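Final report, section 2: Outcomes. Of the targets proposed, YbhB/YbcL family Raf kinase inhibitor-like protein is the one most frequently requested by collaborating groups, and we therefore present its record in full.
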Amino acid sequence: MSTRRPRLISGTAIAAALVVMSSGCGMASGMASTERSQLEPISVSSPRVRDGGPLPSDYSCKGSAGNPPLRWSRVPEGTKSVAIVADSNSRTGGEVHWVVFDIDPRTNELPEGGVPVGAVEGSTTNGKVGYSPPCGVQENYRFTVYALDGKVDLRKGASLGQTLRSIADKTIAWGRLTAAHIE
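The predicted structure is given below as tokens.
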């Protein structure tokens, strides 16, 4: 089994975000397929969002609920922290709507409109800190949960590029819930 870690190759926030969003597993597109297949899968679900179904408008820019609740399981032994990246993925590009990191590895759910105690939120594509509700009705929205072999250990509002690189460097497993569009 390879001990190499996937790495983002871009130094700018937008380029880093596009690399994360454009790849099938949320890691650098240059990562070998054998490395991708060696990452353990995490099961991600939500009591309010069905995988492949629409994102309820409550969690969009037309709603006021904030982020949807998420649950995850099958986090591998040795996980030191968990991170979540919410992004859009479309043919015309994408946007990172939320980054939460340094979640305690014993945590297995995220409340609606909130983050677990001790978790840290980084900057999004638009530079805001916290959940930036999506507006593109026909875009796909992905909520990816990453198991990490260490803490990201950055401050609240850390730059998107720096945060995504640190998450990519530490990822040992990941899983995703995808909403097909906004209802």
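The chain has three helices and nine strands.
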